[in-house]
Amino acid sequence: MDLAVVLVLCLSCLLLLSLWKQSSGKGKLPPGPTPLPILGNILQLDVKNISKSLTNLSKVYGPVFTVYFGMKPIVVLHGYEAVKEALIDLGEEFSGRGMFPLAERANIVNGILFSNGKTWKEIRRFSLMTLRNFGMGKRSIEDRVQEEACCLVEELRKTNGLPCDPTFILGCAPCNVICSIIFQNRFDYKDPVFLDLMERLNEILRILSSPWVQVCNNFPALFDYLPGSHNKVLKNVANLKSFVLEKAMEHKASLDINNPRDYIDCFLIRMEQEKQNQQLEFTLENLTTTVFDLFGAGTETMSTTLRYGLLLLLKHPEVTAKVQEEIDRVIGRHRSPCMQDRSHMPYTDAVVHEIQRYIDLVPSSLPHMVTHDIELRNYIIPKGTGVLVSLTSVLYDDKVFPNPEMFDPGHFLDDSGNFKKSDHFMPFSAGKRICAGESLARMEVFLFLTVILQKFTLKSVVDPKDIDTTPIANGFASVPPPYKLCFIPL
């Protein structure tokens, strides 16, 4: 038989099998575009902008639909109502973490971000309790952020008003805050070890957001057989985990169980307590992965938010001027900003919220998975099915945020100029898997941006009209384009 005929017959069989699997089995999945054999719907998705592709598909198939990433069905939630119904109203059932093949290759599927079941619940509960004990959400952590804000200002002064790339300076500040909680120490901004860690974290986020990784995550065999930037991710993750392990061993050698100094000490003490119970959650491997999760999430996401925020303020000098006027009126030039000031600074608060809404930092959140067979809008989604949450569809809902493509602090202000809350503000996701560091992140973005604008005039090296704020990548995260600016002391 001719080889071409054999291939056509094989592909036809695969197509029929794919269609049969889509319409049969335990689940009655939501509708969606017809998948191709092996490829699924990958050709109907723009890997450079998955979020936009999902929006286009939602116009055809509605707010809950199914796409195939390779041979695997993924249920997509699009729009506030669908997201709320799943993540909040049915929070437990949608609390699983979906597959992220590159995380599996990097051996970071325990810890907080990518774990499931008992491990996730135990580690998350322990981490939240420990972080609260070390001040997260309290005055004590605010003191740490304020101290780091002063260090940030001094470092920015050293630029002498000359053009600079703010990437690493802005990353050092939030990284030092999380380091003070995890390691009980901060680093000098010029420390070569510190800068190496920052570079590796920055590179991981850039690569995770690239089209190449979006394709490979759908066809994970590519990770094993093809060279590519994903190998840099594996190398960087291994290096960072090795750094964390070294710190953990130093802590273990000087541990005082009656006087824990930081997060690592608390974890080591819990490991010792659980040793006789044969608990598999509190292990050295879980410690290194959890600290890596906290270290990475607490540094790079905040660094990117601050970097993107300053770019938007350069693009919109009229917004910057209004924020600085409010800072002068409420705080002045000499007192350090504090969280109590926020309630008296509605415009600044609105700008901070609008930055986070507009940049849409993690457009599709991290993948979810249903933990039980669940009915959603008359569809039966089987246990283990992956779920993709379009946070873009919530943050860019034009019924709530008119002209969502425009950067407009008015989205969070009422007619009287008072700050206006919105249930659609979900940059940290929602439900059981909401970002564990949300309260710290909210504090940092407000205090760091406020102190920068209190102490400096931001000067662009190009005409603000020529500034392009389009992300250079927005697969896993929205990454702003590189730029330079001048920090002119006030």
UniProtKB/TrEMBL annotation:
**This protein's GO CC annotations:** cytoplasm; endoplasmic reticulum membrane
The subcellular location is: Endoplasmic reticulum membrane; Microsome membrane
UniProt-recorded Gene Ontology molecular function terms: heme binding; iron ion binding; oxidoreductase activity, acting on paired donors, with incorporation or reduction of molecular oxygen, reduced flavin or flavoprotein as one donor, and incorporation of one atom of oxygen
Highest taxon of the lineage: Eukaryota
Q: What is its EC number?
A: 1.14.14.1
Keyword set, alphabetical order? Endoplasmic reticulum, Heme, Iron, Membrane, Metal-binding, Microsome, Monooxygenase, Oxidoreductase, Signal
* One Pfam family here: p450
Q: Which residues are recorded as binding heme?
A: 435
Q: Which GO terms describe its biological process?
A: epoxygenase P450 pathway; xenobiotic catabolic process
Q: Which cofactor does it need?
A: heme
For this UniProt entry, which residues form the secretion signal? 1-25
Coarsely, its chief localization is endoplasmic reticulum
Q: Spell out the family assignment given in the record's similarity comment.
A: Belongs to the cytochrome P450 family.
What protein name does the entry list?
unspecific monooxygenase
What's the source species for this entry? Bos taurus (Bovine)
Task: State the taxonomy lineage.
Answer: Eukaryota, Metazoa, Chordata, Craniata, Vertebrata
